[in-house]
Specification:
Elements (H helix, E strand, L loop, with lengths): L1 E7 L5 E9 L9 H15 L58 H17 L3 E4 L9 H11 L5 E5 L4 H7 L5 E5 L5 H6 L2 E5 H11 L1
Length: 209
Amino acid sequence: MSTTIPIKTSSGADSGASYDIQDAWLERDRGEQAVKDSVVAFRARMRSGTAATKNRTLVAGSRAKPWRQKGTGRARVGTAQSPLWRGGGVVFGPQPRSYAKKMNHKVEKLALRRAFTARLDEGDVILVESIDIAEPKTKLMIAFLDAVGAGQNCMIVVDDYSENIDLAARNLPDAMVIKAASVNTYWMLLFKKVVITKAAMETLGQRLA
């Protein structure tokens, strides 16, 4: 048993052909938690983790004792870098770290299958025979996306990068061109529409199966 999706031409017309998506590529019964975990893990990996504060060791200045221990009537202090002083070190402040989270490969695949199935069931996946952009011009990409009914908020999935496609989509703030081998759960869910070529669908299907 398979799910069928129509194939459009680059001009947006119905080609009259359809594509059979195998059940092995789909997941409807489980995977909700996997989707959440996958998105959280991806966003965590995207964090730079470079936030940092200076502790008392890193604050510049003399290490000399500001005044003698007794006899001044003031509180005892050992260094001007004390966290109690203005300009002193920070206690337990953030330090550079990695926010990366590990995920099982099978869970990642399950999450991608579930996310792809959800987009497919919602009618947000647009399958095209190919993307024919003669020149690297933004107006040609806009015309293509309008013709296939995708709008400008979309992920364009290709089997291999084309300079014309990359350059034509580069100035669209809500569109992204990505290879099928690089699609993940987060990107699959982020955009309003997913435009994918037939060749890219084959590659994506091998990852989902």
